[in-house]
Structure formats: structure tokens, C-alpha cells
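Record pair follows.
FIRST:
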Amino acid sequence: MAMQSPPGQSIRDFSTWQPVLRLLRAAKAGKAGVGPVRVAGRIGRGSWSLALPHRMPPPGRASQIEDMQEEMDAVRRVQTAMAAAGVDDVSFSATIEPDGAAVLRLLGPSPAVEPGIGTPHPGALVLVEGSLPEPWRRLPDPTPGAKPAPTADPELLERTLRERIPDAVGATEEEIAAAEARLGVRLPEELKVLYRVTRGRWEDWGDDYDTAVGVFDAVRCELSSVDDLYAAEASTRHWSWQFAAKEAVDTRPDDSVQGVVGSPGWIVFGENGGGDRLAVDLTPGPCGHTGQIVLIGHEESVGAELLADSLTDWVLDREAHPRRDRGEEPPLVAHVNHVSIRSVREAAHPGLEVLSVGVWDGAPFSLAPVIGLPRLRTLAAYAGTLADPREIGGLTGLEFLELGPEDWRVLLDAGAVPRSLSAAAITAYGDHDPLPVVAVANEILALWDRPQIIQTVLGGDLGPLV
């Protein structure tokens, strides 16, 4: 099938790809003998993955753009054509003969396939349109008995803020009510007090950065305006199936914060300057307080960190809470490998949700110990670690499965691919040719009647290697 592209666009012109292919061929010169050279890569609108060496800068000088200018120019040529064609991400594989004759195959896109990460191989295959990994479907548990912390003191909070920022412009009751109506929640009194003192709009500061910094110092964060308050629901956290399916929601009886991905009760009111969000928590954990302050980290996908029992505590910089030890309970996510849990049997327990079998130097494992576990939904297994991949057919509750191409081949030939899957991934390592991986991916997609990974074949001549 040919890649769809508007008439007159150059994404399907071999000349668009020539500079990239010449660089990749030169990088492999002398490594492939006298036969054809196979190269592959991935180019997206804002990133790329190409097996190219980077020149070391002279001693005493840091790397500069000029050190990889040729690569950037070659990639930009392709990205410009992609933008014109409305294509966000393309993987490719090419075979180049010694005389320069080349056959280039463009792989993708498919609306059912996520882009690969740092690889030309396809990312996760979305088998059920619109499906979400289980952690992203989880809502926080109700907490009807939760109350504000004893340290919550709206009057003290207001006095403190007015002393720190006496000339601030506060929000009206109508503006606060509009925020509540938009969010669909009743804001805690402490947060209302904060915005009655300052509504956090840049125009109130005359676009004066120093004035804004004074407000930020007073509230100990980069404050959002009352108009920009929002709920940090699960959809606000970036995810891809290949990683999100390996997470788990875990809230224990002594937790102050629920271990969910997001919550309609996490009302974000600022950032810490490093990309992390601060929120008042209206859905605390079993040992938490309504209105406590939590940090939603940009490097984590699940849970939040308790910063203070109340907004008053936060603004007054009172002692933060230490992290609690998670204890010795069996993990919901188990990693079986040569440096962690050392058997599938040891990892098995009724609460197990995710089983990842990694690098292993012993005999391959049977999956018999985990067959029938009620909550097991994700299995990822490194190539060669399963004694019989056909046992996967007995894992009837799987929603995500990640295997190497060879194990997928066994499952497909045996007709044992679990029909419960919502998504899947094929993990290929090193310099594995993407074409066989794409062929396996299309077989899996076909089982769910999902759009295939299309291929566009282009021919051309790169000329002799200089």
C-alpha cells in the first residue's frame, strides 16, 4: 500500500531522503563487507533516531550544533516534507547496493500504531480503538470521612499573604464562583482565601516580572491565575501503552495520598518551576486531609507526593512529611530477572497485575504459576525467557502483551493470541531489521481488523560512496 500524501508533496520523492541515506551508508562503510548495506531509522516532526556517529569536539570545547549540522540539515529536509504532507512520524528501512542503487521502504503511519521510541520499529499496537490502560481508567476511591487538617487556618493564611503582597489584586466572589462552576467542585476555603488576596493574573502585575516573582515567593510556587485552575485528571498525564500498561494504582490503608494517575479532586494551582505541578487534594488517601498540598511530578506517571497537610502549612513553610516506607507487601508490579525476583513462582500472588520478565541467564520460565490469577493484566517477556509462549493463551485476562518477534510468531502460528488484549507490543533489540517486525505487527492488527502499517517503496541511486 502507498503512503497517502497530497499531490505535489515530496515525502514520496527519493531525493528527499538521499542526504539521510548517504549519511547512514557512510556510517556503515567498512562494516558490511562488499555486499549490500541495510540501514534503518525513524524521523518525527520534532525528533529522530538515526544510527549516526557524532564527532567528538576538540579538547576543552563542548559539543555545538555545528558538530552535527550535516545530520540536522538532512533530517530537516525530510521533516519539511513530512509537515507538508501532514505526516507526524515515519520509520524507514533501506537496502543499498555497493554501486549506490537503493530501495527505500517507508513504514507507516497507521492510526492503530504508536510511534516507536528511539527505534525504527513500531510502537504499541492499539487493538481496541479508544482503549486506555487500566491505571488511566481508575478513579480515586471515595473519602467521605476526610476533613481539613487542624493546621488549616484561613484567617492566618490571609493575614500572612496580605502582609507579604499588600498591593495584590484579589479575585471577586463572582470570579471564584465561576472557577467552581467550571471545575464542578467546591474549592476549599484556604484556596479561596489565596485568590481573594491575589487572582494571579499577569495583567495585574503590569507584565512586571519582579512583581510576579514577589507573588510567587509569597505563595512559594509559580501561581496560576484563578481562571487557569484545572483538575489534574488522568488525561493530563502523558502516556503510551508500552509504559502505562506496566504501571499500577496502589493505595494502602496508611497512605495520605491516593496512588492514582489523576483525580478530579487534584486542583492544580501552580508549578514549582521545574515542571512539577502543585495541587490541593480534595480526594485524599485514608490517612490524608481534605485540602492537603500535593506535588504531581512530571517524571512520574502515577501518584503524587504529599507536601503539606494544608495550604496554610505550605505558605508558612512548615515541616513537610517524610515519605512512608511501602513495607514488604507483595508488589502489584513484579520484575523477574537476574537481579530482582528470580522466578515466576516467587512473583505470583492474587494481587499481581503486571509481570515483566527481563534478562535472565538460567532456564526459561513456565507461566503456569500465574495462570488463573484474577488481576494479571500485563505481561512483558524478554526474548528467550519463556519455556513455552503458547502458555500465554491461558492468561485470559490480559489487556497488554509485549513479546519479541519470535515469541509472537509462536503465538500466531498456534492461534493462541489472547482475545482479551486491548494493545500489544513487539520488542526488537539492536539492529533488528524492522521489515519482519512490521510483518508480524500487521498480522496482529489483522486479528482485530485494525488499520495496517502501510509501506511505500521508493527506488533511487545514491551514487558511489565517496
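SECOND:
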Amino acid sequence: MTTRPTQPIAIRTDLGAIFVSMELSRSSWLLTSLSPGNGEKMSKHSVPAGDLVGLLTLFGKLRERCEAKTGCDYPIVSIQEAGLDGFWIHRALEKEGIESHVVDPASIAISRRRKRAKTDRIDGEALLRTLMAYKRGEPRVCAMVRAPSPDEEDRRRICRERKALIAERVTHVNRIKGLLFSQGVTNYQPLRRDRRQRLEELRTGDDRALPAHMKAQICRELERLELLIDQIKAVEEERDALIAAQAAEAKPSAVKLLLAIKGVGAEFAAILWSEGLFRHFDNRRQVAAYAGLAPTPWQSGSIDREQGVSKAGNPRLRTTLIQMSWLWLRHQPSSALARWFGERVQRNGGRMKKSTIVALARKLLVALWKYAISGVVIEGAIMKST
């Protein structure tokens, strides 16, 4: 049994603000607050989800109550987890002069018990303690998210929408091919321009015309597929217009510099720029960590092993870097990065190509970041002819 010390060991300081944590859900927002002059008691409040006016009214009441008890007007410091609500609440609070923070929920320390209690009440209190520790300046207590500006956030829409449309296009193409395969037809390509003409000419494996209902279903699938093709074309035109506007600037932009490298096309350049390189990073470790390509060691006593990359970053940027690394070996075989990959694989006897390509992706991202931000040319890289 542990005994409680009569005198506190840690130095306690008075609160200099009203700390509020917000647990956001679709139905209601649960707020946990800790105010000066209220001791160590945490208060719970609830407002309907999306009721920004009610939230600001509640904040005003908290300040009034605190001023009535202490005689001082304290500011409000709030925190919320990054999630489905995005950053609109954060921006609205900052517009009202309220200090707001958005935290990565995966960075908050929790109990490691196999069965642990989890409720919105408990999570709100843990979030509040995390905010206070962060404001006290405790190192590595959590990872705060830097909210992008509305323009930066809106630029992402183009590449993300294109990826979603491409995935939907693949679904329709596979469905059409699957329907025809069940009839013995294997040489039909739905993405060809003469797809409807060839559909009329198709014969089943046992030399019959396509069944009427199946043909009607395939025609409807083709209509949806053609709509997707038109939408993908429209999105790509928006992307090219955005890139052209950046490239036309007097100051060399990151997109313009990336497009000058052989093997880097419009889609790769747009994703690299809109998903990562528009941000400010202090060093290469921050760049790799943002893409989820930072190593994850496991060390305890005599145990020392590597768990692979953390994957705790931007998944779209990470996926693009992996794809780009394979293409880099094809288009830039004489570069220092490609030679490093070849020597590393050869040293392993031709094995571990997949894990080595991830390491190459990390090196390539850092090299592209240095090139796009500072103009440091990648060693051995071939540039496009102008």
C-alpha cells in the first residue's frame, strides 16, 4: 500500500487560462473544462454537434463564472483531436480570438492494460491533461497538428478526387470483364474508344450472341464508365491549370522544379507538392516522419530490432513515394540513389527488394525536398530537355 506525501513534491503553479477539451461526435460535443479558482475539479458540458453559437456561448459563460470567482478575466485554451470534423472548428475558434490546438490522437499516451475503460468522459479528461502538459512545455507529450490554410486544403481535392475516380473506374472495368468472362469472352477492353461497337460484335464462347439482359447491364456499366472518364479528364484539366499557374510565377516554384526531373510527371509533381512539400520542415527527419517513412526501433535491454517504417503519416504521400521509387530506378538508373539501391540489393544476394525500396523512398523524399525547397540538385539525376 502506497502512502500519500504530506507535502507536494512537484512545484504547482496556478492556472493562467481556462483549459477546455472537446470530444466531438456526430450527435453532441462533450466539453471538459478546468478553470482557475475551481480547484482540481473538472467540469463537464455538452452542446449539440455543429452548434458553433452554443459553443461560443458556453465559452463566454465559463469566462464569466471564472471572473466572478477570481476577479480576473482569463483566456480560453482549447484542444480537439484531428478527425472527421476537419479543421473548420479550429479555424472558427481562432477567428474569435480563442487559442485552439488540434492534436494527433495516436500520439496521446494511454493505459497499456489489455482491458481498459474508455468513455468520452475519460477521453476528455485525458485530452485536458495532455493540453496542460503541452502548455507547461513538457517535451514530447503529444504531436500537435499544423492545420493547413483553406487554400492549401482545397488544393488537395484535385489529386484526391482523381485517385477516387480512378479506383471507381477500375471497379467498373473489372465488373464488365467479369460479366463477359462468365460467357467465355476474354479479349474485350472497356477503355477502348470503340468499346460500344465491339460490344455489338461480341460472341460468347459457344458462338452465341450476348444474352439480352447481360448486354443491357453492360451498356449501363459503360454509361457509368464513360461518365467517370469525362470526370477524370475534367479533374486532370484542373490539375494542369493549377500547375501551369504555379509554373508561370516569376519565382521558381516547387512544382516547376519537380517537373524538370526526368520521370516526374504532372500527377507525381502535384501530389508531392499538395500533400507534403508545401509545408515547412526543419530537418530531414521531420520530412520522413510526415510521410510515415521514419524507422521504428524496438530496444529494451539486450533486445534491439527494427519494426520497419512507422506508417504514422500521410498515406497518400507515402504510397506515391513507393510508386515513384520503382519508376526512379527505370528513368534514373545512373543517379546516386539508384546505384545505392543496386549495391544494397546485391549485397543482400538479390533479396529484400521490397524493404530496400521503402528505404529508397525515404531517401528520395528527402532529396526531392532539398531540391524543391533549396535547389540542391540530386546527384546524378537526369533533367528533362527544354
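COMMENT: The two ends are 77 Å apart (CA to CA).
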